[in-house]
């Protein structure tokens, strides 16, 4: 398959075999890219998020079924309010643009209470509008934190059990690993590959519960410069790591 940011061609059988069902991306390095290029932080975020539609097309063409994008962490909300406001505007534009393509099935992952009302409304609307799309599922991790996701899942389970009239002891017995997984992952397969850009070599709690079997790939490329060659390098790493060892079965989810 031809490389480059706009290259396309027929994918080979070997390329198809190297592709995980669920790939997660930590979109890191927008602000550092902006510094290198003499741009503002907001311009860095705009440059980074403008890459998303093309990267999703590559993933779709290669046969990935689910992509989870970490667009905004709960920690990011502590930044300068002006930068956060600009980020929310840019992300809202991205969400609406992805829905307009009428290709992906979009869904929000994150702490709903932390998402500003205009963006939350947009997320709910695009989720409803794209639910019947037959293309790749795209999870948008916005105001997301791994610990918060697990905490919220446990809270929702306990609230549900309380509503059923269960005693605290019985409710506690029902909070199993399987129940938490179901609350978090719904019908998503377990992530098999997590990619982080910008050179940072840590997961920062991304998909803390469900990605325990995932391979991790770290690239020094800043997200705004992430191209097809970078994606292929990540998939090559995944293929090499997966070859000759037991993989998570396609239908499994973390338990």
Can you walk through the features of this model?
It is built from ten helices and six strands; from the N terminus they run H-E-H-H-H-E-H-E-H-E-H-H-H-E-E-H. It has 255 residues and is an alpha/beta fold. It has two domains: 19-144 and 190-242, Decaprenyl diphosphate synthase-like (Undecaprenyl pyrophosphate synthetase); 146-188, no CATH class. It has a six-stranded parallel β-sheet, with helices on both faces. Strand 3, helix 6 and strand 4 form a beta-alpha-beta unit. Helix 5 runs parallel beside helix 6 and helix 7 packs across helix 8 (168-174). It is globular and about 60 Å long. The two termini are 36 Å apart.
Return the string of H and E elements. HEHHHEHEHEHHHEEH
CATH architecture of the largest domain: 3-Layer(aba) Sandwich
Rg calculated over all Cα atoms: 19 Å
Structural category is: alpha/beta
Q: Please tell me the total number of domains.
A: 2
Termini separation (Å)? 36 Å
What is the CATH class of the largest domain? Alpha Beta
How do the strands of the widest beta sheet line up side by side?
3-4-2-1-5-6
CATH fold call of the largest domain: Undecaprenyl pyrophosphate synthetase
Nearest-integer average pLDDT = 90
- What is the helix tally? 10
Strand content: 5-15%
Which ranges are low-confidence, i.e. pLDDT below 50, for 5 or more consecutive residues? 1-15, 247-255
